[in-house]
Amino acid sequence: MTDHAPTIPRLPPLLGQAMRPLPLLPLTVTLSALSRRLAKRHPGMFRRLGEHGNKRFALDPTDLPMVFLMDLRGGRVRLSAHRKAPAAEARIAGPIAAFLGMMHGAYDGDALFFSRDLVVEGDTSAVLALRNAIDDAELDLTEELADLAGPMAGFLRAAVAQAEKQSGVVLHRVDTLAGGWA
Amino acid sequence: MMELVCPAGTPAAMRAAVEAGAHAVYCGFADETNARNFPGLNFSTEEMASGIAGAHARGAKVLVALNTFPRAGGEELWHRRLADAEAAGADAVILADMGLLAHAAEHHPRMRRHLSVQAAAANPDAINFYAEAFGVQRVVLPRVLTVDEIAAINREIDVETEVFVFGGLCVMAEGRCSLSSYATGKSPNMNGVCSPASHVAYAEEGQDLAARLGGFTIHRTPKNQPAPYPTLCKGCFSSGDQTGHVFEDPVSLDAKHLIPALAKAGVTALKIEGRQRSRAYVGEVVRTFRAAVEAVAAGRPMPEGALARLSEGQAATAGAYAKTWR
Ligand code: SF4
Asked: What are the b/e assignments for B52-87, b being 16+ CB within 10 Å?
């Protein structure tokens, strides 16, 4: 326990620059598969969004050369990667580690906001609803991707564990409960 | 040991609280019956039933907050939620409205009734009235009392008292503040929200972050400074020749070091605020306070450790427990 704000790791600027020329298509393909899977496996998360479940959220990791769009219009979930900020009802910006740490139960969203690691623009209610819905869904991105990776799952898990150790970015759920609750 | 009553805005936060050592959790349904009626929060009828079953299986109690004031002509929703809470196995309901208390006493006599902080019962006469008229068994005291005043109250009442020890501060005697409705049309007592997010807008203006509520700028924070939520009473205003936090600073309550004094004052339960916070927050705060109440019960010194980084304004106060008013 500490009384200092957790230092949110930032990816080295060189890494961001190196990623700039990479095509976004493979990422968008993975994101589409991931969004279909999330919609199927976590319907409660989308139910929890209520009236905000038909909006677009721009998620802007400030240390990566891309912006993600989560588009929930038309009762579907679509995740995509963009070079420039796409039109959206709400925008959340901050280091990628803040997004992933919050999603994995390592960091508190309000605390990241008070410390200004995260910046919110646009529809504040929608952002709160999204944050609460994701927090309740107890997501584990590594496990979701490992399931998509099929026979490559073992390799993916090992690579993620390495990346996590090297970068300090939280890439899996931290509060997995023994046995879980029914 | 003093009972630790912990917030659960979602089923996941309820699990986090119980796993972290909560003796009891409090939560509410996802509608206006609950004073934390925020987007994306709270429990459906099914989630309430399974959450309570899970908590009971792990030895924790669940207190269901139905702590807003029913609208005239709309009481039916509150009555239905009382029945839902009992059917789900709630250990108690937390109520503020006298009509709802009377209804609960008459129709759900076996379910424990706690008096919500929203009722703002802050003296022995008021508390004894609620106890006699409605069989209230515990009262949550407003955050305006000193430890000595709490001790004085406990000497003159027979019901249990519960006090806030950590989290966001509402500086008024709760249940009596309508400040938020002047800027947004919505207030805690009528709509379950204070300074609601639907009326909040942030804007980066040069180096500053401006936080607005209903179009009024409540804070302007320079770069690299902690950014508080624009709660109306914690805004920066000009009044006469004074400019600053006229009502209250954007800090939150941390009364951990007062736990031994509160125990001596006869307090039964300690409440942690924060149903709008994440499971990460709930887990960390509950673990810290569980260690503290265990230490106090065993006569050991209070374990060190601060939670300031989780707090609004990243600063904490002992609140009214040791307060000098402006
Ligand atoms: S404006 Fe402040 S004092 Fe009034 S209800 Fe809201 S938090 Fe409480």
From this structure: bebbeeeebbbbbbbbbbbeeeeeeebbebbebbbe
User: How far apart are the CA of B246 and the centre of ligand 1, in A?
Assistant: 13
Give per-residue pLDDT as tens, B164-188.
999 888 766 666 788 899 999 988 7
B244: confidence class by pLDDT, cuts 50, 70, 90: confident
* Minimum-distance CB partner of B278 among A5, A135, A177: A135
Q: Name the pTM for this structure.
A: 0.91
**A50 falls within a domain:** yes
Residue A5 lies in a domain: no
B154 compared with B307, residue with greater pLDDT: B154
Q: Report all structural domains of chain B as residue ranges with CATH numbers, in order of start.
A: 3-169+251-322 (3.20.20.70), 179-244 (no CATH)
Number of domains in chain A: 2
Q: Which residues of B touch A98 (CB under 8 A)?
A: none
The pLDDT tens digits of the residues spanning B79-89 come to 999 999 999 99
The tokens of A89 are what?
Answer: 């009802």
With a Cβ cut-off of 6 Å, ligand 1 is lined by B 170-172, 177, 179-180, 188, 194, 231-233
The ipTM (two decimal places) reads 0.89
Domain of A73, in residue numbers: 15-138
Q: Both A166 and A93 in a single domain?
A: no
Is A120 contained in some domain? yes
Which residues of chain A lie closer than 8 angstroms to B308, CB-CB?
Answer: 3
Quote the tokens at residue B161.
Answer: 């008292």
Q: Hey, whose CA ends up nearest to atom 1 of ligand 1?
A: B233
H helix intervals, B161-278: 179-184, 188-191, 259-264
Q: Are residues A27 and A82 in the same domain?
A: yes
Instruction: Tell me, yes or no, if B202 comes closer than 8 A to chain A by beta carbon.
Output: yes
List the single residue in B54, B196, B228 with the smallest CB-CB distance to A182.
B54
